[in-house]
Task: structure prediction
Amino acid sequence: MKGIILDFSIQTNSGIISGEDQRRYTFIGSEWKEVFNPQRGLIIDFDLDTNGQVIGVYKALNNSISSTSHIMTNTEKSEEDYNLFDWFIKCLKNYANFNGRARRKEFWFFYLALVICNIFAMVLDAILETEVIFYGIVTLATIIPFLAVSTRRLHDIGKSGWWYLISLTIIGIILLIIWWAKEGEAFSNPYGDIAK
Result:
């Protein structure tokens, strides 16, 4: 069956396909049979097993889909075209995903958006004289995504997420900032494929 890749996440090693039968299917990275990573908007051929699970996903030899060509205009943009808001939403969608890797851009854009949200919450608290209610809500809502993206960032440089615990010391915070700013490993590591 023909289809188009709507999304693929290196961190979760899974993706979504829109088939020519107008249904959506999820697939895992091990079913991708090409030498390059799956990309949004790529037209593919795939099969289904007896349970309706996607197997054997290949790049289509014929780059046209008759009944699903309208889908190509609705696909999401690639990570190269992401802005601050897109990176923030990506991390929120991976709310409690501590597996995989996160590149520097994903981590630092999320952190910047988090700082902006916290400043906005503090200003709102000051205007409404509500002590720290809005700031507390923002902090509670974003603490798990921040821990998750921090862990994935450490995975990108080949370190266990448990290293985040050194943030309990002053020296540890400095070391974490250095690690978060470090270029990720340019090869697959035990935590996943390259996050670029």
Remarks:
- The chain has two domains: 2-76, 84-181.
- The mean pLDDT is 85.
- Helices lie at 84-93, 104-128, 133-156, 170-181.
